[in-house]
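Suppose you are handed only these lines of text.
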Amino acid sequence: MILLKHFQKIITPFLLAFLLAFPGVAQKFENLAMTPPMGWNSWNKFNCEINEQIIRDAADAMVSSGMKDAGYEYIVIDDCWQVSRDSLGFIQADPEKFPSGIKALADYIHSRGLKFGIYSCAGRETCASRPGSRGYEFQDALTYAKWGVDFLKHDWCNSTGQNQKESYALMRDALYASGRPVVFSICEWGLSKPWEWAANVGHLWRTTGDIRNNWNIPDAKEGKCWGGGVIINLDMQQGLEIYAGPGHWNDPDMLEVGNGALTDSESRAHFSLWCMLAAPLIAGNDLVNMDEKTKKILTNKELIAVNQDVLGKQGFKIKDYGEIEIYYKPLHQGDMAICIFNRFNQPVSTQLNWKNFELQVNSQNKNLELTPTIDRKDIQLNDNYTIYDLWEKREIGTTSQVLKREIAGHDVAVFRLKKH
Ligand code: GLA
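From them, the structure of the protein bound to alpha-D-galactopyranose can be written out as follows.
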C-alpha cells in the first residue's frame, strides 16, 4: 500500500534516469496534429461551471450543427472536472458534476465520432485550485490512457520553482510511456518562449495569456501586457510564423466567436485571422444555443481549408499601414490566402494592386495616404491568379485588375488566389 502510494515518487527518478540515458526514447507522439487541431473547449463559455451533461450536449451539438463535418474534432474539458486524489494518488473526478465518471464520458464522445480532451496542470494545483499533476505525471498519464484521452491541455499555475522545459518534457515522456497517442497542448502562456524549445515536446503551445471576450483590452502581468482581447493576442503572433509547422503550432488561444461580446465584423475578423495564422481552431462558445450567424462563421469551410492547408505555413503581415494590414498565407499547389484587415472602427474603401500588394485607402472619399511600416517587397505576384472571395463565397475576377473593396470597421476581406 505504502509502496503504491509512493509509486509516482519512486518510479519517476528511475524513469527520468532511463530517459536521460536513452534520449532517443524521450519523444512526443509524431504524426499527430499535422494540421492545426480543431475542436471545442469548455473554458471560455462555462469556466468552472461544468458537468457531464454540458460536455455531452456540446458533443451532440458539434455533430448536429455541422461543426464535425466542417472538421472540428476534439471535445476538451477544461479546469474543474477534478476534485481530489484517492489514497493511492489516482486523480478523481468531481462525483457530483461527473457522476458517470470520465471514462464513460470519453466513451460517449468517441461514440459520436469525436475525440476527447482533458485538462491538467504542471504545477501542484490547477489555476482553479484543483489537484495538478506535479509529482503524479506518470500516474496521471496512465489514467488518461485508461480513460481514452486523446488530447491534454497542460497549464502552468502554482508552478513556483519549476522550469517549463523540464516540467513539460516530463509530462511528454509520461504520455509517451503510457502508449496512447495524445495531442499535447502546452499552456504556459508564452512566458518561456515555448516556440523556441517546444517543437519536440508538444503539438501546440500558447503564445499569450488568456484571450478575453473583448476586442482590444490588454491584460497585464508584472506590469507587462501578456495577452487580452482578440487583437492583443493577434499582435503577439508577429514574428512567430517561423516556429510553426505540421505537428507544432503557435496557439494564440481559443475562439471567442459566439460569446456575445464581439460584433459580427469582429467575429468574422477574429475567425479569419486565426485561420490565416494556422492557429488551433478551438471554439469556446455554447454550441447548443449557437445562432446562425455564429455557426456560419465557425463552419466557413473555405476559410477552414486555409487554416488546415497541408503546407502548414503560418500566415504573416506583408503590409502594415497602421490601421490597415495585409496578411499573407502560402497554401499548397501554389495557392495563397490574402486577408485585408481594417482596424479602424469605421468603414474604408481600399484599392489593391495585386502585383506588389500596394494598397490605397480612402475614408469618406479622402485618400489617407498611408505609408507602410512593414512592406514585404519580396512577396510579389508574377502570374495571373483567379480570386475567390472566402466570405462572399464566389469568384470575383483575376489579379490582373485592381481590386476595389469597401471594408467595414473591425472587419476583413479574405481571398484565396489560385493560379490560372
Ligand atoms: C489558465 C488557462 C486558461 C484556462 C484556465 C483554467 O488561465 O490559460 O486557458 O485553462 O487556466 O483555470
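What can we learn from it? The chain is about 25% helix and 25% strand. The longest strand covers residues 411-419.
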